[in-house]
Amino acid sequence: MKSSIKWQYLRDFFSIFIPILVIEVIFRLIANNDIFDLSLIRIIIGISVIASLLTFIYQMLPNWTRKLITTLVVLFDAIYAIAQLGFYNFLGVYISLQNTSQLGAVTDYIKDFIASFKWYYFLPFIGLFISIMYSIFVYKKIESHDKVNLFKHCLISCSLTVLLVVSYYLTLTMNVFESEITSMSNLNLFLTASNSSYGVSKFGTTMFWLTDVRELVKPIKVENQYIVDNIDEEETVSDNSRTIDDSRWNEVIDNTDNSDYQTLNNYFINQDITDMNDYTGLFEGKNVIFILMESVDDIFVEYPQYYPNFAKIINGGWYFDNNYSPRNSCATLNNEFSGMTSLYSISNICTAKTYSDNTYYEDVFNLFNDTGYKTFSAHDYTEHYYPRNLIHTNMGSGHYYGVEELGITYSDEYRDWANDDEFFSKVLDIISNDTSDGSNYMSWLTTVSSHQPYNVDSVQGNAYYSMTDGTGLPDDVRHYMSKLKILDNALGILLNGLEEKGTLDDTVLVLYGDHYPYGISTNNLNEALSYDTSLDMNAERVPFVIYNSEVTTGVKYHQYTTYVNILPTVANLFNLNYDPRVYMGTDLFSDDYNSMSVFADGSWKNEYAYYNASTGEVKYYKEHYSSSDIQRINSIIQAKLEMSSLAIETNYFNYLENSLNNFDKEISDSELCYTKYKDYYIEEYGDDYDGEVE
Description:
single chain; alpha/beta; eight-stranded mixed sheet; four-stranded antiparallel sheet; 12 strands; 50% helix; globular
């Protein structure tokens, strides 16, 4: 039969193409991705490439094997799409294979993870149903019993596959498929699989999975041009200018051959040095306690009747009401890392865990260590998820206290966390013991009581559940609010304890939420909050406040910010010896601060607009930016994200510290040598010898 090749090819091709396309379309509808976006053309071509390749292989296999492989491929594709919907709902991000630690975390919550699925998340199984029906009815109907000429079939398959691959490449490179203001090119995203949210939107779940696997097996490094965020062409010097001697750094640059280090050297040394300001040294000589508050959002702010201690801190502190958490695949540890280093984490991995051996000489611990402070950090849970003992120690923490060393009661059952009130009581004991000599201290505390799950009974979730009787709020929100009450009690213990010791006025509290309460839907959060969390990254809005009973006076600041700005702000407030250029954030009180919240996928938001990197669209609130303005903003942000990643991946700050120290040692050795043999050199070179030793 002359048509046997054509019919067999079409039969096998569409047995794969149709079910996977249905899965992708259903996924986009559920995920609220624009179904008419041009990226759908790329997704269709990508599915065609997969179908064409499998169809070629099928001609060497019996019919039952073809049907089995097709069913398994479609089954996997449907399960993967459903899992991605579930991960996004439960953790706030699409999962990447490069972040296996979060996959492990979900296995601990497996019952609650599955229970969080909405019924329509399972609609991708329609694709599997179509595949089975196709196999039973259509596949059999057009099946030919004629022997196919493999050469002709190969010619058809290979020709079509090449045509499809070329077409797919064009969708990655042609301008029509890319917004002129995009923060990352389609080709770079395809090659690196570095942004799961953007990647799933642009390539679909099937192709993103393939690129994710390829990146896991063989990462591809992409060279990008970057823009230095240096708007002032002319350098002005004033009484508030912060001067830094770059002679050592320039010497290091002249003697560095590594291209990555040179790229980073040139990037950082060309950043602006922010001036000192009226807030410089305002807290100089005081103690400081950083508190990373687990899963705390603005519910903690909007219900002062339930949380009087946090209300006292906000009403008497500097409260930044437009602080946002950059959603990523390892939110707690990554946002803790960003607060400590002022670097953007690598969004698709647990950055500090993956690079736990890295050191950062300009991080928060080392800055205070260099000033003579005693430093320590503590967390009231085990090392089960994150090896903080190793991470914090390498970052310079004088001592890390885990839950066992603290002697805090906790449960291996994940839903019954330790109590933060007991945690803060132990911290007060540490402060008393470690600072009995009157020395200053800096501590970093990470809480745990308000961690999910919220849709089941738990010790913390039930403890103050009755507090919200009669509110009509959803059960998961009420469980969450009960857990927040424990944190508020802990803050009360800390405030009262410091006051009893007579050190409250001499202590600064820096508090921020690591992320919104994952596991609670935006619809349920909306019932408890005064704004719509489903719009413009509003769910990522979390508290950030700086409090000192002696200095702060209850001011609300409206500039947009994220965690990378915390460290440079605190460094300026304490008048620490730091170089502002090595941070991705900026002192919030600096005249150079640009009000903006930057998210993990390159999206950003401020008073004027919200840029969605996944769609390449801008939503304006006030005045409009020009296209060139948007492009410049995106280029600067992308450079910051890329330079942060490169610095972390290459352990750049360890290299820079060692190089600077080696340079200092050479100078010191040279000076020592000259002092020891001074008479000889004067005799050899005369009284005018300038001290330079050969």
